[in-house]
Amino acid sequence: MPRTLAIVGNGEMRGGAAEAIDAADLVIRFNECRSYGSGGARTDVVAVCNTGLPAKTMLGSARWRTHPAVAAATEIWSVRDPAKFAEMRPLLAFSHPELDDFCDDYTGQFGTFCTATGKTHLVIERTIHEAMDHALLAFEPERYVVPSSGMIVIGSVLERFPGHDIVLAGFDHSGWEWHPFAAERRLVEHYIAAGRISRVGAGLPARSREGV
Hints:
By secondary structure, this protein is α/β, with parallel strands linked by helices. It has one domain: Alpha-Beta Complex (sialyltransferase cstii, chain A). Helices cover 41% and strands 15% of the residues. It has helices at 17-22, 52-59, 62-66, 68-72, 82-95, 107-117, 126-137, 149-160, 181-193; strands spanning 4-8, 26-30, 45-48, 75-78, 120-123, 165-169, 198-201. The protein is globular, with a radius of gyration of 16 Å.
């Protein structure tokens, strides 16, 4: 029987979104789980940027480690394949020298955190990242560094859970300048038109250095 999977970004929620999210069979949130509260409380998975400053900040924060959404989650998904980001480092040193810590890898530390807290740790494989890069080409993205964590998770869920109902909330496709948000919006709308996903509600984005 099809289940409902809610992928919940960190944007503002419309009325009724919290109830719809909490009624889902599986709820995925991101990083600091800023959607918690206005976007309901149920949390099964927290998807994290496992490289660079976002990873370092989360792992060093007692508030993140004890956040009720993180505590409730049974799985942590690291969205960045360590080997792929290691390969990107010398290229970014030339193209984006200001992102000198972008590929610093904290995947092992998230694994250690999961072991200590009884959670499953999943690293989303590079094939998903590369498939999203390929899918975005059709929507003429401007120059970018990587797809957003949200886009990587959407790609992973579409592959892992075919035939289930996938709903999005809190996705406004705006934020960090080196994510291809305009193209991502068009790709998501393409998936919606094809009946592969739908939206629960979205509003203004919650911005960060790197975001969903």
